[in-house]
Amino acid sequence: MTIEKVEDQFAHIRNAIANATKIVPQQFKGLLDELKSEALAEKLVVEHGVQHATSDDINQEFVSLDAVENDKDEIDENDENLVDMDAVSVDMLDAFGE
Length: 98
Prior knowledge:
Layout: H1 3-18, H2 26-48, H3 55-70, H4 90-95
Helix pairs in contact: 1-2
């Protein structure tokens, strides 16, 4: 998709939001709110550039990532001694000279 097509689509969305003077049916209220917030976010970035992360943003992201990291199972790199070699196929035993 070209930049011109994307810009045209955004222009149509902006125009639709700007021209929405009638009462919006309840089923489209959430969509309209979402489109308005996206238009405001786009306007903010266009006018002010990308905003830098605040300390609070960084702390929230750190807590989120730390929770993911702590949730991982520990990997024992030396677990080859824990494998039951009787459960390994004959072909694998031959490959490793067992």
